[in-house]
Design goal:
The protein is α+β, with helices and mostly antiparallel strands and 236 residues long. The chain has helices spanning 2-16, 46-52, 66-77, 140-143, 151-155, 166-170, 177-198, 211-217, and strands at residues 33-35, 79-85, 88-94, 105-111, 120-125, 130-136, 158-165, 201-206, 224-234. The strands form 2 sheets. A 7-stranded antiparallel beta sheet has the order 1-6-5-4-7-9-8, with helices on both faces. It has a two-stranded antiparallel sheet with strand order 2-3.
């Protein structure tokens, strides 16, 4: 696994590394947890939702409400069911399927405006359906250095960063699985678009970002890479 991990990191750095971010990372807070409410899924016709799906460049200048945020995470990235797999009796399988059912995908929230969630950086825990604080304070200033189109940092109330855990992937698969991790991220983005549209939200998937700057902002370990950003808010 070590050889595959180092090779994938080298390829990823060659393809995606834009800057050398040497600044201090955010001070780790106490890991404050924010439970999210459990909600009923949105009632929407699937084909009609796909037809209505759009990418938005502008968002309303008001907080994303807690119910919408919780539903988006729960039904796009949450747990669908538990099965006997990976050596345990209750292994979680996500709403967004992944290769081999591995838990490679992670989601982080960079919150500028959201009801019930103070500005800051959070990791989404799908099994407990909670947000875990990674860094406090409004992330907008540093997000402008992450987005290659910095207007998204100031416009979107919430940005969702999807990441892939190379160590988990290469514990069972060869180096070729580096490609599959990006397929997994694409499936998750499609879920975010579909659920977000069903909830009446404005959404936009973004791949134009500085990988090193985002990794530093999220305090990612060396074995974890950013794959996509997804901006979401109320419609303007």
């Amino acid at each position: 696994m070590a050889d595959a991990l180092s090779s994938a990191k080298a390829v990823h750095a060659m393809l995606n590394g834009q800057s050398e971010d040497t600044r201090d990372r955010p001070v780790q807070p106490n890991g404050h947890r924010i439970p999210l409410p459990d909600l009923e899924p949105p009632r929407a016709d699937l084909v009609g939702t796909l037809v209505q799906r759009r990418s938005a460049a502008k968002f309303a200048d008001r907080p994303l409400d807690m119910a919408a945020l919780s539903a988006l995470l729960r039904f796009a990235l949450g747990v669908q069911r538990f099965v006997q797999a990976q050596g345990v009796d209750k292994h979680p399988l996500g709403m967004a399927p992944s290769a081999g059912g591995l838990l490679c995908l992670r989601a982080y929230l960079l919150v500028r405006q959201a009801d019930g969630v103070p500005p800051g950086i959070y990791r989404y825990e799908s099994v407990s359906h909670q947000l875990i604080e990674i860094g406090g304070g409004d992330p907008t200033e540093r997000l402008t250095e992450v987005f290659l189109q910095p207007e998204f940092a100031a416009n979107a109330p919430v940005s969702i960063a999807l990441t892939a855990r190379l160590d988990v992937a290469f514990s069972q698969y060869p180096l070729r699985h580096y490609r599959t991790l990006h397929v997994d991220a694409g499936v998750a983005v499609q879920n975010l678009y579909t659920v977000g549209t069903a909830l009446g939200l404005a959404c936009c998937a973004i791949s134009a970002f500085d990988d090193r700057a985002l990794g530093a902002l999220l305090c990612l370990p060396d074995s974890e890479i950013a794959t996509m950003l997804f901006s979401v808010g109320q419609k303007a």
